[in-house]
Structure formats: structure tokens, C-alpha cells
Amino acid sequence: MNYSITYPDYLVNARDWELQASKGCLDSVYLVVDENAYELSFYDFTRAEQDVADNGEGYFFKPNVVLVPAVTKEHIARAVAEFVAHKEYNYLIEAKEGEGAYPQSPHAAVKYQILCSEVMDAINWAVQECKGWFGCMCLKINTKVYTMTCFDFVRSKQELEKTTQDGYKHYFFEENLVLLPKLTKEAIEKALADIATKGYERYLVQEKRQSLEQLLKLYYMVLRVDTDMTYKAGGIRDVVSRKVEQLLTEVIDPLPHDTIDAKIHDFLLYLLGYDTPDLNDKYLHSPEDLEAAYDQLECIAVLRGHELIVEKGYFDV
């Protein structure tokens, strides 16, 4: 894949880059892939956390931001090369001439809704806070729906350390990412409300990611809500099980051997049987069982096949 990077023209020599690295951030890095231009920002975690502490908003959100261990030319160049190889540019907002990093003023009369509020209400937030991430949230702003992902700084650093250790990628990036000092329901709701009402909507990517990784996270999140221990035909467990059966039959099984990591395949098989009761005692798998099975995936982003594109129909649960 052919691509080019253009750095700000004030970065001329090693001393300029050394000074920039000490700041912990670099804006206006232009990536061009297939004649499409994207304006990227690179941050290290220290600077991102500092910005949260300084801005008083309680969260970090910036369009097309990529987090790296250090804001050096070497780290950025390697991150971009991997970024392009993994085709994550598909999840960026294209650069538009004449636009700055943020809108000049908030938009008026914005209507927004967190569509997964029932999922958020049902979650044990003490447990979720320990996990440090919450994904597959659907934020509706006026008539458009966006999938949001929230991480705390600790978990996002751990994700970067894991993918770096495995040699998979040396950066941290998520579509429509919000970083929080502490992952709480209140912090997430406040951040999403700000994004919806302060004019940040045009920096959100709408329904581009349809990967197997995102699908697994979605199934996990919707199943966590179901605490009913009796079997119901047509219930959410039944719906997910049928979707998984269709996915395995139509997409996964026809693929060449080793295309999909065994951990992903095992989790899909677990979901396939998650709705199966033991008729002797009417037992169903518990949410704790689901947690244990999901934890076996560890870091999905390093597993083979996680980036496989999946049709939207499998997301209809």
C-alpha cells in the first residue's frame, strides 16, 4: 500500500524533534493513502492525562488521535506504517480544507440519546471500572448514530503494552475514542453529552467499523444485560446464538485453516451454546460464566482474524 506522511514544516532537525517529544504531542501530521488525506494527532499518555487535568472537562477526546509510547519521528513513522498495514485509516475523518481541530462554537438545538442506556444501567460498574473499558455504545445525535469506545488511561496503556510485546502494533487507536481518568457511568455520560452538544459531531466516524473484533465486543455487551436464568425462545441469548451459528456456517468455517485464532473460534462456540439449558435443572450459563469466557480472549486486537470485515446483518441483535 502506497502512502505518504507530511510533518509540520517547523520540524527540521533532530533538536526540533527532541523539543516536540518533550511536549508529548504533535498535531497536523498529514497521511495520504490512495489520494485520501487525513490529519492525524499523536500523543503520549502523559500529555493526554495532563490535558485532562488542565482542561477541566474530565475526559480526553480528539479527532484522529493516535497514542504512542513517545512522540518521536521514529515512533510516529513506525505507527503510521503499521496503521496503514492494518487499514485503520478507514476509521479516520478525512481532512477538510479550512477546518481547524475543533469547531468554533457549540451547535444549537442538538438532540442526543445514549441508545445503550439500558445496558449501562444493568452493568455492575464496580467490576467494569476494574476492567477499564466500555465499548459498543451507540450515541445518537439528531438523526445519526455513532459507535463510541471509552477506555481509562490504565487499560489503554496496558493494551499498548500488550500489542507492543506481541509485535503486532506499537500504537493505541480506537474509532471514536474517549479516554477517562476513571471509568464510571457518570464520567461516560458526561463525556458523551459534551461531545454531542459542543459541536464535536463532525469529528465522529459513523458506522465504518464492522470487524469481527467489534462484533465479539457487541455480543459480549448485550449478553451481559441478560441476568434471567430461564430459557426464552426469541430472547437475546437465542438471537445471539442464532447469529453466531449463521456467522460460523457462512463466514468462519469456509475460511482456510488458521485464518481465525483458536481463542476467537472457542469464544464463538461458547456463544453458540450460551442459550442452551440443562433441562434437568433449568440451568443457564450465568453472567459470571460469560465474563470468564470473554476474559480468555485477553487482547482481541492481537488475535488472528480480529480485523475480518463482517456484514452489518450480524450486528442486528
Q: Would you count the extended β strands for me?
A: 8
Instruction: Give the uncertain stretches in residue-range form.
Output: 100-105
Question: How many alpha or pi helices?
Answer: 11
Succession of helices and strands: EHEEHEHEHHEEHEHHHHH
- Terminal-residue CA separation: 35 Å
Any idea what the radius of gyration is? 21 Å
Structural class: alpha/beta
The largest pleated sheet is described as: 4 strands, mixed
Fraction in beta strands: 15-25%
The helical percent reads 25-40%
Strand order of the largest sheet: 1-2-3-4
Summarize, please:
With 317 residues, this protein is α/β, with parallel strands linked by helices.
Q: What does this 3D model show about the protein?
A:
The protein is an alpha/beta fold and 317 residues long. 39% of the residues lie in helices and 15% in strands. It is built from 11 helices and 8 strands. The protein has helices spanning 14-23, 45-55, 73-85, 117-122, 125-131, 153-165, 185-197, 212-225, 236-252, 262-272, 287-295, and strands at residues 3-6, 25-33, 36-43, 65-67, 112-114, 133-141, 144-152, 177-180. The strands form 2 sheets. A 4-stranded mixed β-sheet has the order 1-2-3-4. A hairpin with a 2-residue loop joins strand 6 (133-141) and strand 7 (144-152). Helix 8 (212-225) packs antiparallel against helix 11 (287-295) and helix 9 packs across helix 10 (262-272). The longest helix is centred in the C-terminal third of the chain and has 17 residues, at 236-252. It is globular and about 75 Å long. The two termini are 35 Å apart. Mean pLDDT is 87; it is low at 100-105.
